[in-house]
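User: Continuing from earlier, I have the next pair ready.

Assistant: Great, send them over.

User: Here they are, in order.

Assistant: Folding the first of the pair now:
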Amino acid sequence: MLTPKARGPLSAAVLEALATAPDRIATPSPESAEDAAIALWALYELHYRGFDGVDDALEWHPGLLGVRRELEIDLEDRLRSRYVPHAWEGDLAEALFGYVAEHDGASLARHVQSTATEEQVLDLFRVRSIYHLKEADPTSWVIPRLPTGPKAALVELQFDEYGGGDPNRLHSHLWALGMDALGLRADYGAYVDDAPLEILEQNNVMSLFGLHRRLRGAALGHLAAFEMTSSLPSRRMAQGLERLGMAPAMIEYYTEHVEADAVHEQLAARTICGALVGAEPALADDVFLGAFSCLDLEDRFARRQLAEWGAA
């Protein structure tokens, strides 16, 4: 993957450092939220697939890690400032289902189901590909940080995400097949320069939660909210693509998620989050922080995209 385009002086300095690998890195303050977000995204990608022409050893470069930490502090502070701690009682899974059900955000899937044009859908897929081409990977960082029960349950869920051992059923691969069938680029990170702030932040938050052991509760709360809000929207997306006569391969991606995520939401809420909080009660609030962040960031992106389409 090529490095992304800079969006300001901070990201320009980070990308220059990736190219030159200096011992010390002087970075200016970000001039915008997008400048900070693309810089953080690039630094996180060193832990995934890296970049063409960038030394893999830079994954653990102390100077780059220092820059990443400052950006992470700012991102986490903003997430926590938006979140209102949630008082709950009784069964954690039931409380989590109720919390997610109370959220009534904007729906891109509903727009695609009934109204969107083909070009709007293609625009959506371009920026969604930043996540879908790595899909389950941020959550996999959490596996070794869990006690026995939640660990086994998360591996079970991830096994489905990774195609049950069949590389042709890997969810990220199904997405790539759909992109290719639509005439879009299916290579990893191909459309990052088209991604708005909200998409970058969605991806950065998943990496933030996944890469920090202390945020394992937030990572799993995010996963649960994601799975709880996936099955019905996936059905709507499939119906919208059928309405437009779009590629069967991409329709298959969504139909795969209609049934799979209906099962995954139960697994994520009960056998993963519920069991985690049972073993580590202090992580309960972070579970709700993660769920809130998932819902809030998707709502922010949906509202932006619908406004851009004149559909808000």
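And the other member of the pair:
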Amino acid sequence: MSDIRALIELVRAPAAFSVPGDVLAGAAAAGKRVDARTCGVAAASVCLYWAGMALNDYADRFVDGFERPERPVPSGRVPAKTALAIAGGLTAAGLTAAAVSGGVRTLAVAIPLAGAVWGYDLAWKNGPSGPVAMAAARSLDVFMGAGAGSARAAAPAAAVVGVHTMAVTVLSRSEVTGASRRVAAVTAALSGGAAAGAFAVSRAGSGTGGRHSHRHRDSRRRAQRAFATALAAAYTWRFGTAQAAVARDGRAPVVRKAVGAGIISLMPLQASLIAGRGDPLTALPIAAAGPLARRLARKVSPT
């Protein structure tokens, strides 16, 4: 029987902190506030993310036997058939949660999201379309938070999250072999594009307004923009510093550290998108989850 520690490592449990922000960014873009539906969709998103992590280790079990024998499946702490069963069970749980929480419109996004997760792990991961497939999966996660009827409103946030995900995915391909300066330059350009997109969302987003005076509304909007800008700057500093380290020293341990930083730094990026759309109170816990996720990542690797 697999122990709890091995199962936590299998699904990269700490990395799940980076998932609800996708849904909340989509909901904020669509003008929706956090409610039971949003929380249920976020839970569905976490289930699908964990399914992808378990499926990843199942699909990579033979390669990991040489490259990362300490992982749960090649080490024998989690049997391969158990990892596959966990991936299937979590996928079913995620789709069920999406249907119960958001109905047909949410399920209409959750199904292709699940397909993207399974397709990436079993078919596309090692090919040229791998980073694009992973970016599409995280973008669909944002759209799931917005709902199928609000795709246009959520498109900028989905693009930002997708571009960041592509940067992390490209970098992660060098976790074992080490990365060249060219790889570091490509991922830096992608993450720079994600940061620029977050800044643009903060400038274009609409405030809550209501019946407040124009002066009060403008003051609130300036504060929201400042908060969103600060969060985007925190993302840029956190991930940019890690990528600069790869440019100086592309050895595998440095790359793995940068990939972990990319996963964790997604949270201030998501928080910036949420605050930029006029919902700073929802952005706060997403931003605050970053330091907690970093501490947990020292115990269980998110990569």
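Worth noting for the second one:
The first helix runs from residue 4 to 10. The two ends are 24 Å apart (CA to CA).
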